[in-house]
Batch of 2 targets.
Target 1
Amino acid sequence: MPRFIRTVDLETTGSRPPAHAVCEIGWQDVVEQPDRTWEVGGEDGFIICDPERDIPPVTQAVHHLTDEDVKGCPVFRDVAPEVLRPGPDCIGLAAHRVTFESRFCTPELTGGLPWVCTWKSALRCFPDSPSFSNQVLKYWRKPEGLDRQRALPVHRAFPDAYTTAFHLRDMLNMVGPDELFAWNEEPGLLPRVPRGELRGTKWGELSDAELTPLLRDRDVDIRFSASREMERRTGLPATEKREKQGVLL
């Protein structure tokens, strides 16, 4: 059987388990072809889950799943293993913001499969994108073969997983899975300063005086990106450690 990576997306009652829980999981596989290219294919689907708590109105307004929709559905912990551990040919999982999905898709449920974060990978593969959200990438890149109707409505688990799979396919065909797995273990390498007075400025356009304070920024992605630019300029490792991203930004 060919190797594949399973793209997953969750809709939840909020962002912080165990206070919050999953109310839908969707997935779409990206499969390696005999010529070693990758294509969207294989299995796909979604399961609505009972989060065993009320869905806040502000969250219902995002994904439009109501308490009535999820009542009597299976709970996430019972269905997650069959989705997240689909067999030995699955070499990894992918999500557009792994720091979010991995809070709920724990190693206990995934069997310890490695992750690809398509947000982090998009920063490197598509640095000229005006934004790096799943939906902006969809409309900016216009991935070949993506069925717009299958990608709707947004903020539902299957359409979002389906959209992410097309970004993943193109990234896999650019650099391969090993590089994508490795990038997930580092903070995001931002192509531009993301906020403040210097927002939108490319790192190489900053003066040393502008760059130096960003090495101490509270945002791990900014620190990491600034340190990489300092390394480029000096040829020496920056003092900032390349720490793993530990928070959802």
Target 2
Amino acid sequence: MKTLIHTRIYALLTQNESNPSELAHAYEEFIETMTEMVANFDNRDDILRILYYSRVEFDVLSHPSFNRYSNNVLRTTFIYKIMYILDCEINIVSNSTKYSSNQDYSFPLSYQDGELLWTGTQQELLELAVALHKNGIIMYGNRKARFIEIVRALSSTFHITINDVYVKKTRMLDRSTAVTPFLDKLKKAYEQVVERHLR
């Protein structure tokens, strides 16, 4: 069963970790990973199964029979923070209207003549989204936009539908060929424009 234990916060909490900064950063990464994962599932039962099983795994870390580091208050605090946020996410998913509608989220977005369309590949759009997210230049209110929020904005703007975003992002990052073929192509195109301008 797929769970959220393959995260840095889980690895740290299985040890007697007491570095506040490292735990805080790992906690933020966990929240982002969980949010992206939930956003990329259309089946409520699958999401809830993962969230519930993940909560069990973190709950075990706090159990007296398995908690060798019960005297580490900071570690215990983060374990309970994770379980609380998982409970909150379970409640949100359980009550979300997204899963009670008949809308098929795999349908292509509709568009009219004269609107902007993305003619590149899904991988190219994801490559651009990863770079924008890592750079942190796009804001969502008073915080930096999450990866999935950037993908949704680009998809909506350019009328392209990308399913299983998180899975496709992972596959893209795992590739062993050119690391950033699309961004390299954009950089080369910009350099050509500058060269022509300076002639």
